[in-house]
Design a protein that fits this description.
The chain is globular, with a radius of gyration of 18 Å. Helix 9 runs parallel beside helix 11 and helix 12 packs parallel to helix 14. The protein has an 8-stranded parallel β-barrel, surrounded by 7 helices. It has a two-stranded antiparallel sheet with strand order 4-5. By secondary structure, it is of the alpha/beta class. Strand 2, helix 6 and strand 3 form a beta-alpha-beta unit. Helix content is 45%, strand content 13%. It contains 14 helices and 10 strands. The two termini are 20 Å apart. The longest helix has 17 residues. Bound molecules: 1,6-di-O-phosphono-beta-D-fructofuranose (FBP). The site of 1,6-di-O-phosphono-beta-D-fructofuranose has 14 residues, from helix 3 and helix 13.
């Protein structure tokens, strides 16, 4: 399939990257039901590591099987499937070439109470060995340990880019620096998008922001500039602006499992606000297979417009 004008436009924002990295960004944008539209729907399945197997897979026991997620992403027409090393190693050969893969290079579990900080659990060479298009990496702005996470990402992103891979950053504010409500506050989430862009991310994944304003100085700035934040579409629009005036791909996470209409209403607002797509994990793999495919197809239909 020839690259569409929209895909060419998006690739022009990454013109400093080598042809290998640009090719991988193009593969992300030219695969699946949304190929060529400039929109993306990615299936992420790192929740087994992040939240534990029972919380993640008990609602749909078939999802304990690594093959399940490859097949789900393929059957639903996703742009890519993202997972930690173990899940990708388990299916990368069987499903080789059928779905672009993103290897999550760092992960954290829910078993410790210290400040949020992920361990580096895989390498750029693992990503190449498994045929991935990109590395994935989580940062926790707001954590006391954010600096080592940013510094590790600098090294990994440099290596990934030099070896022709793309870089996807999960930007999840949390930790001592911010309140629980502040983790999804519009000032904090848009700040996390900006940090990710400055760290060199090609694709930035954030949570849907609320209208809460966490930081007093940022609150004043939002109010003085009269930045609209009443609707989710308004807030998505500001997050996209915060990521280099819309010149970085910003996608939104699905969050904990919820009703189909709630998911679709949120997607409509993300589309309206100019978001580039979604990364939908629990709302997909915790549903029975047919229901998950149906929901993902409805999400893609909204993005396709
Ligand atoms: P979901 O759609 O299930 O929210 O998945 C997106 C995701 O980013 C996963 O990659 C990650 O494991 C999870 O969210 C983290 O969720 P939380 O911040 O609630 O721990």
């Amino acid at each position: 399939m020839a690259a569409t004008d929209r895909v060419k436009e998006i690739l022009s924002w990454y013109s400093s990257e080598n042809p290998g990295t640009q090719t991988q960004i193009a593969r992300l944008l030219m695969t699946g039901t949304l190929a060529g539209t400039g929109k993306l729907v990615i299936l992420p399945v790192d929740q087994g590591f992040e939240h534990g197997p029972a919380r993640s897979f008990a609602p749909n026991p078939a999802a304990h099987d690594p093959d399940y997620h490859f097949q789900l992403a393929i059957d639903a027409g996703c742009n890519a499937y993202a997972a930690p090393l173990g899940f990708l190693e388990a299916g990368a050969s069987k499903f080789a070439g059928q779905i672009p893969l993103i290897l999550k290079l760092n992960n954290s579990d829910s078993l410790s109470k210290v400040e949020p900080c992920s361990a580096v659990t895989a390498s750029v060479d693992d990503a190449l060995r498994l045929g991935c298009v990109a590395i994935g990496y989580t940062i926790y702005p707001g954590s006391d340990f954010r600096n080592p996470m940013y510094e590790d990402l600098r090294e990994l992103a440099l290596e990934a880019k030099s070896k022709g891979l793309a870089v996807v950053v999960w930007a999840y504010p949390r930790g001592n620096g911010i309140s629980k409500e502040g983790e999804t506050a519009i000032d904090v989430v848009s700040y996390a998008a900006q940090i990710s862009a400055q760290l060199g991310a090609h694709v930035i994944k954030i949570k849907a922001p609320t209208a809460h304003l966490e930081q007093a100085e940022a609150k004043k700035a939002f109010e003085k500039a009269k930045i609209p934040i009443d609707t989710l579409a308004d807030r998505v629009s500001y997050c996209v602006k915060a990521a280099f005036n819309g010149k970085r791909i910003v996608i939104f996470s699905g969050g904990a499992a919820k009703g189909t209409q709630d998911v679709l209403d949120e997607i409509r607002q993300i589309k309206q606000g100019g978001g580039f797509g979604s990364i939908v994990g629990r709302n997909a793999f915790q549903r029975p297979h047919a229901e998950a495919i149906d929901l993902l197809k409805q999400i893609m239909a909204i993005y396709k417009g």
